[in-house]
Input
Amino acid sequence: MNFSMLEVMMLICFGFSWPFSIIRSYKSRTSKGKSLIFLILLVLGYISGILHKLLISFDLAIILYIVNMIMISIDIALYARNTKLDKQKSLSEAQERRDSHFS
Output
């Protein structure tokens, strides 16, 4: 099987970066500083790469596309969790302000 070493290196570099983003999203418990549109565009890019590998030029680099896409999907799930936590925190803070105003 023939594959592009530069493509593989790109995917490996991205692949080493995603765990840092996932850990940051998990620990921060906020969606501030994240862009859902950006994450979705990245997933669409990886889907395109996977389809290219399946339909036009199959090689084992497809594994890296899939692994990276899974990691971005985890980050999207954390974004959803963190957005929910942000809303809960905002509601709680608003309630506390109302309670202290009327005390």
Remarks:
- The radius of gyration is 19 Å.
- The longest helix spans residues 61-102.
- The helical segments are 5-28, 36-55, 61-102.
- The CA atoms of residues 22 and 75 lie 5 Å apart.
